[in-house]
Amino acid sequence: MPAAELSEPEYLRHVEHLARKVVAMAKEEGWLSYGDDPAELTPLQQVISQLDDQIRHHHFAGDGCVDDSELPLMKLAGIVVLRPEAMPAGMAGTYDEICARLGVDARPEGWAIWNTWAADGQPVSIVMVDLEGTEGVLMNWTRGIEVYPVTPLPAQVVLARQGWVTPMTLSPLSARKLGTTRPVCWSPAEG
User: Fold this and answer.
1) Which residues have C-beta within 8 Å of that of residue 74, sequence separation ≥ 6?
2) Residue 49 lies inside a defined structural domain of this protein
3) How far is Cα 120 from Cα 136, in angstroms, rounded to an integer?
4) In this structure, is residue 47 part of a structural domain?
5) Per-residue pLDDT tens for 110-141?
6) Is residue 64 part of a domain?
7) Do 114 and 163 reside in the same domain of the chain?
8) Cβ–Cβ contacts within 10 Å for residue 175, how many?
9) Per-residue pLDDT at 141
10) Which residue, 6, 94, 106, 111, is most buried by CB atoms nearer than 10 A?
């Protein structure tokens, strides 16, 4: 499709897609790394490294890239976002009913739920107030970019409970384990 036929958002997505292909090819050649760039890189290789730094993923507070780089990243099985006006497809009950079952107030902003594992490997759901960071993670996952947030601060966590809240949007890690290629919505009854 000629560039003249693309809308501006389509054009920008196309350019991003091409930039990702350039970075992927550089990685295949074996010289692209996430550390400090060696002095022997050519000017073109330096620019491709800078390109990689910019397109790696959608940045959000708590993504581990800037100020929180010393906090450990948290591996997630999946994410659930509860909002009064938009509940996950397949979740039984109203927003108020689900909040009551979880044991949290039905706040107007909604809740972010991170499904992860406890130290002993058991499934755990963490109910959090960090909707912005959670949506940043989801934005990356839907673009096929595997990122994980930093471990939440205690002030962000409202409740932790055994088991996972479902249906959830699977992390890329979980999607691979289940044999799917993209993060999808999943609940135990499905698989």
Assistant:
1) 114, 116, 148, 149, 150, 151, 152
2) yes
3) 28
4) yes
5) 999 999 999 999 999 999 999 998 998 998 88
6) no
7) yes
8) 19
9) 87
10) 111
Q: How many domains are contained in the chain?
A: 2
Type and span of the H or E element at 98: helix 95-102
- Same-domain status, 48 and 88: no
CA–CA gap between residue 81 and residue 158 (Å, rounded): 14
Q: Would you give the DSSP letter of residue 189?
A: G
Q: Looking at the structure, do residues 87 and 167 belong to the same domain, yes or no?
A: yes
Residue 73 lies inside a defined structural domain of this protein: no
Helix (H, G, I), strand (E, B) or coil at 155: helix
51 and 124: one domain? no
pLDDT in tens, 47-73: 888 787 777 666 666 666 655 556 788
- Mean pLDDT, rounded, of the chain: 82
Q: Can you read off the two tokens belonging to residue 122? A: 């058991």
92-114: per-residue pLDDT in tens? 999 999 999 999 999 999 999 99
Residues 83 and 166 in one domain: yes
Euclidean distance between CA atoms 11 and 139, whole angstroms: 19
